[in-house]
Amino acid sequence: MIDLNFINNSVALIDRTHHGLLSITGDDRLRFLHNQSTNNIQGLKVGEGCDTVLVNSTGRNIDLVSAYVQENQVLLLVSPHQNKPLYDWLDRYIFPFDKVAIKDVTNDYRIFTLIGEKSQDLLSEWVDNEFLNSSEFSHKIITIEDIELIITVGCNLKLTGYNLIIPQEKAHQIWDKLTAKNPILLNNEDYENLQILRGKPRVNHELTDEFNPLESGLWDAISFNKGCYIGQETIARLNTYKGVKQKLWGIKLKGSIDPEKDKIIMVEGEKVGKITSYLETELENFALGYIRTKAGDIGLKVTIGEVEGEVINIPFINHEYYEPKS
Asked: How far apart are CA 95 and CA 191, in angstroms?
């Protein structure tokens, strides 16, 4: 059973190759991504990155991706199995005179992620501490015993950690070097459980076209100063008029529920929302769900099925409105 506190105080290793990886190249690559997603991509320099949300024309969620700006490309780390759908979606917006090319490089690389406070110690043999302590999304090319790879600061969970993006044919050698240092080995289910505990929205759960990124608490992945992009008008209007009608929260439960049938969140007999993810651990039963803004937020007492619960904050999300500077 996963123990977030234990993992965070140690070091864990997971093969995240099932997450997709897209390469955007061409002279217009930054402008193109800037116009297709919520964050200020054109404001990034080589070696920097950010989270950004791809939304549809009405501002509804498609995917939350991490963008890493390199010298000759932007790498997009996307949700599991979303590489093909996102490739097709982005390709629709490339016009004949755009100097942009998209390539699905998911099968060319493997992605190994280290999570936990001691991940820096594990990597210090190969990577300088100044870089390991740099800001989230910082990245560079390093060499580990003649194997060239990309290292990024952050494990995409707002926890201490790092991603290693390694050419497929050399990846097994790096895996052997990492496992020789005896990290905790996690599987894909473990990583998804960590996402739930941290409150990171997942595709087909919290990230669907039923919700927009403001409702999903992804304000940190949105720039309100960048100008037009797909879905921008809707998102800007929701912020300006404080029009977010439901918000994603964590719910700590006092017992077990059946997530197949116990989906409705109630307050004093009134439906106020629905759960989107559920997880049982040795320490607690926990759910993620969208709750009507007017019903309340942190500390709200709710019922799901026959089980009582309390709304709590979750680390990954932010629900603060953006206030323009005068």
From this structure: 37
